[in-house]
Amino acid sequence: MSDLHKLTIADARNKLRAKEITSVELTQSCLDAIDAADALGAYVHKTPDLAIEAATAADARIAVGDAPDMCGIPLGIKDLFCTQGVNSQAASGILKGFKPEYESTVSQKLKDAGTVMLGKLNMDEFAMGSSNETSVYGDVVNPWKVDERNLTPGGSSGGSASAVAADLCLAATGTDTGGSIRQPAAFTGIVGIKPTYGRCSRWGIVAFASSLDQAGPMTKSVRDAAIMLETMCGHDPKDSTSADIAVPNFEAMLTGDIRGKKIGIPKEYRMDGMPAEIETLWQNGTEMLRDAGAEIVDISLPHTKYALPAYYVIAPAEASSNLARYDGVRFGHRATLGASDGITEMYEKTRAEGFGPEVQRRVMIGTYVLSAGFYDAYYNRARRVRTLIKKDFEDVFSAGVDAILTPATPSAAFGLGEMTDADPVQMYLNDVFTVTVNLAGLPGISVPAGLDAQGLPLGLQLIGRPWEEGDLLNTAYALEQSAGFVAKPNIWW
Amino acid sequence: MSIDTATAAKVAKLARIKVEEDALPALAQEFNTILGFIEQLNEVDVEGVEPMTSVTPQRLKRRVDEVTDGNQHDKVLKNAPDAREGFFVVPKVVE
After folding, report:
1. Catalytic site residue A78?
2. Which of the ends of chain A has fewer CB neighbours closer than 10 A, N or C?
3. What is the mean pLDDT of residues A414-441?
4. Per residue in A177-198, pLDDT tens?
5. To the nearest whole percent, how much of chain A has pLDDT over 70?
């Protein structure tokens, strides 16, 4: 097996353009690595034939000098993206066998740029989860391992994180509703960015909570994130919330010069019971940015504590509405019915069989908070709190803060199964540092910044001003340079 | 706010998810845990605060009101669990 699958996007691009390698060779190297890594459970639908076909076409484009940055780059695509003619199930039993007749806008943009889809990646069912244990396909395993336990890669983009960290693709798509790109990126030692709400079209991405969902890249470096994000972004008439704002060349903005930038450290993110290692990592990151010439300022985001409870009203409410479409009529699973069963029994049995326990729980919570008599007390109150959370950020940005540094997660990766007996709220706490960013619609990036005492990766999160992903990526680039994180998991699978 | 099994059954019905009778007490307990967590929102003073409708301040785009898509009958029915003669098929809904 060649080592080409270990390349970054930037290196592969340069080698492809210099004709040192071909996309077919690069793609074959990834396909071989994927076939040797079934133990990780990252890929759930492999598409090797389509991949070689796309790689051959990419090589032809490169040969004639028509090579966008992403041309010939092999990627994994999260199962949440509808891909034409290829199973797209959102890791749910209710979409078993669903093969869309259309392609999501983001994956179409990646296709148009000449990228190569290697297959579909595992995830939490309907992107609801923080450990990739709610998937109908089974758990994803983190390639990082420090003892006999199998660890979670995080969620919901767990397959994407595991595949990128284990070099089973050069990069992958993810989606992030409450932290589903940034938390798994932190758990697996990779980079993940959620752009500003509206940067990436949501069209053709299976909807979870439409006012919070955003797609983004999960990559091996900040430079790769910049390159891939640019390809994924852009206005789409098919998504009414997609922003008609010019997409800059993000890679060209990576100078590493952050002198004079004002970095805010929010005191509310210092949580009771936070492991000392996370605190130390945060301190170290702060010093790195200071040493790079940034000005560090203490800031306050007073409503932080209420972000998670607000999220657990708004996201289930939107999910209960979005998931109403899974009724056993137009696509996916339909329960076998008894002779006396009518249409209501069809709905009820189909949804009970097709949805897993976490999805059922969230749909029902959403139904409850939207039901007559509770709409104001829960849903409208949560939306008011959301306004206040957004205002917290607006206040610090208008005071001149350029970016905010926080830990990405409250812990390193935990063992698969370790949270099984905990109540659901314990699992929800994984997103405590990331969920504010979705509620405020801001861009956020997770950068690997160190290892804990066991040798597991830890990430720091940078939060930027709306639409200023370029500046945010540059700050992340400076942090990446200073942190010098180069550790990779040992291949045990 | 405490959810009893009757409320849990009502919510399951509204959500069109079949929940067996013996699973209702555990479900009600889970709802109570989650709603207990959500109750924290009552501590926040939201007097005079507008509920958020759009996280980014933008007007919805408009376009000419004309047909831009259609005639995809077969594609629309392709993934249906049961389709016959150009229609989705469901159990009888009228006597």
Report:
1. yes
2. N
3. 92
4. 999 999 999 999 999 999 999 9
5. 100
The active-site residue, picked from A156, A162, A201, A221, is A156
**Any idea what DSSP says for residue A3?**
S
Given the DSSP bridges, would you call strands A262-266 and A295-299 parallel, antiparallel or unpaired? Answer: parallel
Q: Name the minimum distance, in Å, from the CA of B38 to any CA of chain A.
A: 5
Chain B residues near residue A347 by CB distance under 8 angstroms:
16
Quickly list DSSP for A214-245. Answer: EEEEEESSHHHHHHHHHHH----TT-TTS---
In this complex, which of A312, A331, A387 lies closest to B38 when CB atoms are compared?
A312
A99 touches chain B (CB under 8 A): yes
Q: Is the pTM of this model over 0.90?
A: yes
Q: A183 with A142: CB under 8 angstroms?
A: no
Nearest to B12 among A309, A364, A424 (CB): A364
Task: Provide CB contacts within 8 A for A267, sequence distance 6+.
Answer: A298, A299, A300
Of A309, A369, A380, the CB nearest to B40: A309
Q: Does A360 touch chain B (CB under 8 A)?
A: yes
Q: Is the CB of A361 inside 8 Å of chain B's CB atoms?
A: yes
Three-state DSSP state, B63 = coil
Give the Cα separation of A453 and A401 in Å (integer).
Answer: 33
For residue A322, CA distances in Å to A13, A258, A289, A317, B64 come to: 39, 42, 41, 9, 27
Q: How many residues does chain A have?
A: 493
Residue B87 CA to residue A2 CA, distance in Å, equals: 51
Whether residue A164 has pLDDT greater than 80: yes
